[in-house]
Amino acid sequence: MATRCLVFLVGLLAGFHLWAAPMPMMDHGRMRMDMSGRMVMGQNTDRLPPGCRRISEEVEITVKAGHKYARPFPGTMFGYSDHEWRVEPCAKVTVTLVNEDQVRHQWMLHDLPEEVYPRGMFHLEVTGPGEVTGTFIAPAEDRTYLVHCDIPQHTEKGMKAQLVVGKGSGVLPGIPGISEPAVKYDAARPKGADLVDAAAGSETERDRNPFLSGMLVLGIVLAIVGAPYFLRWLGERFFGMTGRELNAYLFERIMALACQGIAVFRSLWQRLRPGSA
């Protein structure tokens, strides 16, 4: 009995050790992954891209991903701890992605030479809290490359960055804290200031178009002056009519207008019809 208990206890401890220990990543050449949701695609530690004769430098990058990194950027939900990295052409770059959220995040680099990188991509991925490390070699030309998370809506919600190789090729649009924002936000502005600006813009538009402003004032004046005469005419015209008589009069007027419209349309049709000349 004691022997059985001892064997059961040893097995239980061994099972707990295997469950608690980090799972090793399966290596499939350019792709490494494990069952816990960590993945590296496009791994390249030694194959030089076209135009590179040697490794120019070795760079290590640690980037954190999570909800809290979106707080400085209004309108975003997820973010990276950094949004720009600079390396020399032909640099050997080792990236460690640290996911601090309970959801899946990625660090994807696009438009790499397809001779070296399948589909032109280097890809890190972590599901839930954890980290993963991968290595790639930067291309030889000066260029700015897009980095983002390809999980649906994560890019649109703030997970965009750029890798500048050498002198780069400009600033990519929509990079939080790097690109010029499409809509500037000032936290010190009081609530409702945008509405005030919109109203001021409307007034400025009216000032630039005095004709519309004058027509509006003239219409208001005519409405005020003509309202008593119009009401008096209505009273004289319809005073004493019963409901049936009023309905008959309105129906008669509507039918007369409809007949006039049909007559005008028929006349125009006869004039414009082919062969009418």
What are the salient characteristics of this protein?
277 residues; alpha+beta; Immunoglobulin-like; 3 domains; four-stranded mixed beta sheet; 34% helix; 23% strand; elongated
Q: Please give the share of residues in helix.
A: 25-40%
CATH architecture of the largest domain: Sandwich
Query: Low-confidence parts, pLDDT < 50 over ≥5 residues?
Result: 5-10, 12-22, 198-206
Q: What's the end-to-end separation, in Å?
A: 118 Å
Q: Give the H and E element order.
A: HEEEEEEEEEEEEHHH
Strand order of the largest sheet: 1-2-3-9-8-11-12-6
| Relevant CATH superfamily of the largest domain | Cupredoxins -  blue copper proteins
Largest beta-sheet characterization: 8 strands, mixed
CATH hierarchy class name of the largest domain: Mainly Beta
Instruction: Tell me the number of helical segments per DSSP (H or I, 4 or more residues long).
Output: 4
Assign the CATH topology of the largest domain.
Immunoglobulin-like
Describe the structure.
The chain has 277 residues and is α+β, with helices and mostly antiparallel strands. It has 3 domains: 25-165, Immunoglobulin-like, CATH 2.60.40.420; 186-225, no CATH class; 240-277. The protein is built from 4 helices and 12 strands. It has helices spanning 2-20, 193-208, 210-238, 243-272; strands at 26-28, 31-33, 39-41, 58-66, 79-80, 84-87, 92-99, 104-109, 122-127, 130-137, 143-148, 160-165. The strands form 2 sheets. It has an 8-stranded mixed beta sheet, with no helix packed on it. The protein has a 4-stranded mixed beta sheet with strand order 5-4-7-10, with no helix packed on it. Strand 2 (31-33) and strand 3 (39-41) form a beta hairpin. The protein is elongated. It starts with a helix and ends in a 5-residue tail after the last helix. The relative contact order is 0.10. Mean pLDDT is 81; it is low at 5-10, 12-22 and 198-206.
